[in-house]
């Protein structure tokens, strides 16, 4: 069962080019997905559990502009062990302009560990046809550009770690990219950023393809990594 929300994009969610920022695009995708989850789970006790975003693959066919009215639709395309697989797509004037594949991880709040999805939850979620397939990606592990990233007080959310959408700000700043420059972005959340003041951003670019990661300054902990395909 799919779920659709309609949004009119205010200018304060947009970047310097009047396009919806990457951070706020991620917020639209995640908020619609999690709202759908709450609806599907209305008869299930989820007080001990929480969904967190594990990864996004986002294809930007056309940028979303300020004052655009868009429809954001999500559906569950599979569940496996700890993960729910989602498609999300955004339409403007009936045309799909953004497609995304989201992987959501179910965790036990008390133990802060992944927990297997129950049969009750699997039945509630169902399994809709796949619209956008997740790509099998390979990643670089050597980088030639580096930047220190300061963790701002306002980056921390109610879970007392850096909010998932804020990572897109870090990546945009690291690679000097705006939404209009990107046709595809993949992000994998590996470890949370908690109790840090500075982290290191690293990236390398080859033929309009950017590999990046954010890591600790103190040890080998990797917070996130991913890949970007540019259209410029």
From TrEMBL:
One of its GO terms (molecular function) is thiolester hydrolase activity. It comes from Anaerococcus nagyae. Gene3D superfamilies: Hotdog Thioesterase. This is Acyl-ACP thioesterase. Residues 2-125 form the Acyl-ACP thioesterase N-terminal hotdog domain. Residues 145-219 form the Acyl-ACP thioesterase-like C-terminal domain. InterPro entries: Acyl-ACP_TE_C, Acyl-ACP_thioesterase_NHD, HotDog_dom_sf. GO terms for biological process: fatty acid biosynthetic process. Signal peptide: none annotated.
């Amino acid at each position: 069962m799919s779920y659709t929300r309609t949004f009119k994009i205010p200018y304060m969610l947009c970047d310097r080019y009047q396009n919806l920022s990457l951070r706020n695009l991620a917020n639209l995708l995640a908020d619609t997905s999690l709202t759908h989850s709450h609806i599907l789970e209305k008869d299930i006790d989820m007080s001990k559990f929480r969904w967190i975003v594990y990864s996004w693959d986002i294809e930007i066919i056309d940028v979303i502009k300020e004052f655009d009215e868009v429809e954001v639709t999500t559906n569950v395309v599979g569940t496996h062990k700890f993960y729910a697989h989602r498609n999300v797509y955004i339409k403007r004037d009936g045309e799909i302009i953004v497609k995304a594949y989201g992987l959501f991880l179910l965790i036990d709040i008390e133990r802060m560990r992944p927990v297997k999805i129950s049969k009750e939850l699997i039945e509630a979620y169902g399994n809709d046809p796949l619209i956008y397939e997740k790509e099998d990606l390979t990643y670089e592990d050597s980088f030639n550009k580096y930047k220190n990233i300061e963790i701002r007080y306002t980056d921390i959310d109610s879970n007392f770690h850096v909010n998932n959408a804020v990572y897109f700000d870090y990546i945009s700043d690291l690679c000097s990219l705006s939404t209009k420059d990107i046709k595809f972005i993949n992000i994998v959340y590996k470890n949370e950023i908690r109790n840090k003041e500075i982290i290191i951003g690293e990236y390398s670019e080859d033929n309009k393809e950017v590999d990046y990661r954010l890591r600790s300054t103190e040890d080998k902990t990797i917070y996130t990594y991913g890949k970007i395909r540019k259209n410029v």
